[in-house]
Amino acid sequence: MLKTRKFEVLDYLKTEKDIEKYLNVVLEEGDYKFLPVALADIARARKAMTSAAKAAGVSRTNLYQSLSEDGHPAFETIAKVAQSLGYRLSLVPVSKLTVRKAKKSINSKKAKMTV
Predict the structure, then answer these.
(1) Whose CA is closest to 47, among 74, 14, 83?
(2) Is 73 left (phi over 0), alpha (psi -120 to 50) or beta?
(3) Is the entire prediction scored with pTM above 0.90?
(4) How many whole angstroms separate alpha carbon 53 and alpha carbon 60?
(5) pLDDT confidence bin for 110, thresholds 50/70/90
(6) Dist CA 44 CA 62 (whole Å)
(7) How far apart are CA 41 and CA 88, in angstroms?
């Protein structure tokens, strides 16, 4: 019988380069609900959950819950945790082509909803 084990991302976050790649993939995928989970993974990989919780002004237990897949952290919490891990959140303009594609996608979704 084949034995399997649950995938654990921490097994792959061994270096700062690994962590950087992981965070970039999460952000590039565009499903931002995974950003808090990724920040929790990074804090766990660095053994920095306690200091991240202090920076965010919440208990460690509350931070684990907030940054879970079922959590709904405030933007301020995400920003403070990111900063405690050495990251700064910033908004960067997208190209005009990307904006046009996004608008077209939104308009096509609206058209489908009215049908």
Answers:
(1) 14
(2) beta
(3) no
(4) 5
(5) low
(6) 14
(7) 17
